[in-house]
Amino acid sequence: MRSLAPSTKLALAMSLKNLLTKKFLDDITVKEIVEDCQVNRQTFYYHFQDIYDLLRFFLDHETQVTVAGSANWQEALLRCFQYAREHHLIIFHVFRSNGRDYLDNHFFRLARAVSQGALRACSPDLTLEEPDLAFLSDFYMYALGGLIMGWLSDDMKEEPEALVERISRLLDGEFRRAAETFARRGPPAGTTF
Questions:
Q1: How far is 6 from 9, CA to CA, in rounded Å?
Q2: Is the per-residue pLDDT at 15 higher than 90?
């Protein structure tokens, strides 16, 4: 019997993960998830609105576990690419289903978090206004997120290490330069301190 510790939500997510190794997301039912998890439907709907809500939770959980303890943005990005490669069947079963939008959104959120973390880490001595930090984070998010989605669409052919090395060569120093440019321009016109 499958244990529900540490949480029922996590147990349901692990059941979804198990089923995604076998079939496309579109072919998975709530009934299969609760049977695999050995809980009832009410328990599922107590925690999640639908399978896509569970998918969002699952993706967020897997990413948190994957990037935990990363020393820098390059390592976090590398771990995400490696996770996708190691769990290619799960990614494929979501990528080629109605859950594709959730996967895309997830990778863009991940790319934004990586970008924002890199901007903060490279500029602790600079003051970036929140709108500027958000703008820069979004700018780099679209670049990194687009690369991730392109890599997935191309069947993950390029080695994760090589891809992250190329991204790092391109962006090494760029986060700092962008932060300096925005910090130098000072507060918006009309703002007094």
A1: 9
A2: yes
